[in-house]
């Protein structure tokens, strides 16, 4: 099983701007992000992500873990809205779709998966944008992993962190 999270943040640690991650994304981040999703068996997101980000079309199934059963993705035939805790939704998704999982959600759900020790790593894109919302401590997030590789492409810093401590 391979479970990796994908998260874009601004230089100040902001994870959204004007209510969406698109406000802090870059062209290089978007290209890398879209390529990563095509290799996943399914995408796992939270309900808030489903309501604020464009998941109406996805190349692979998308599993939404949410306590609210108001399905914001009813028009996506590959969307599955499950009223399950994140770890249970992850396990059910692996059984139904396969072991290669891309978690595209906010820091709260990512931290929950880290605490449950089910995340193999994270792909973090850090753009030059500042002044966004929902700020996280990037170094604190990365301190959960033992292997951290950094690479800069077109002004965006890409970090691949693996293996939970």
UniProtKB/TrEMBL annotation:
<dbReference type="InterPro" id="IPR002734">
    <property type="entry name" value="RibDG_C"/>
</dbReference>
<protein>
    <submittedName>
        <fullName>Unannotated protein</fullName>
    </submittedName>
</protein>
<dbReference type="InterPro" id="IPR024072">
    <property type="entry name" value="DHFR-like_dom_sf"/>
</dbReference>
<dbReference type="Pfam" id="PF01872">
    <property type="entry name" value="RibD_C"/>
</dbReference>
<feature type="domain" description="Bacterial bifunctional deaminase-reductase C-terminal">
    <location>
        <begin position="3"/>
        <end position="133"/>
    </location>
</feature>
<dbReference type="GO" id="GO:0008703">
    <property type="term" value="F:5-amino-6-(5-phosphoribosylamino)uracil reductase activity"/>
</dbReference>
<dbReference type="GO" id="GO:0009231">
    <property type="term" value="P:riboflavin biosynthetic process"/>
</dbReference>
């Amino acid at each position: 099983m391979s479970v990796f999270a994908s998260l874009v943040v601004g230089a100040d640690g902001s994870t959204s701007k004007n209510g969406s991650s698109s406000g802090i994304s870059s062209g290089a981040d978007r290209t890398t992000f879209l390529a990563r999703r095509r290799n996943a068996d399914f995408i796992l997101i939270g309900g808030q992500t489903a309501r604020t980000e464009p998941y109406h079309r996805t190349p692979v199934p998308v599993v939404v873990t949410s306590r609210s059963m108001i399905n914001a993705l009813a028009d996506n035939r590959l969307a599955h809205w499950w009223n399950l805790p994140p770890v249970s939704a992850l396990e059910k998704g692996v059984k139904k779709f396969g072991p290669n999982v891309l978690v595209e959600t906010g820091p709260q759900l990512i931290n929950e998966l880290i605490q449950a020790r089910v995340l193999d790593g994270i792909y973090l894109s850090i753009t030059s944008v500042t002044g966004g919302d929902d700020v996280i401590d990037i170094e604190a997030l990365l301190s959960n992993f033992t292997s951290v590789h950094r690479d800069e492409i077109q002004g965006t810093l890409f970090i691949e962190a693996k293996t939970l401590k």
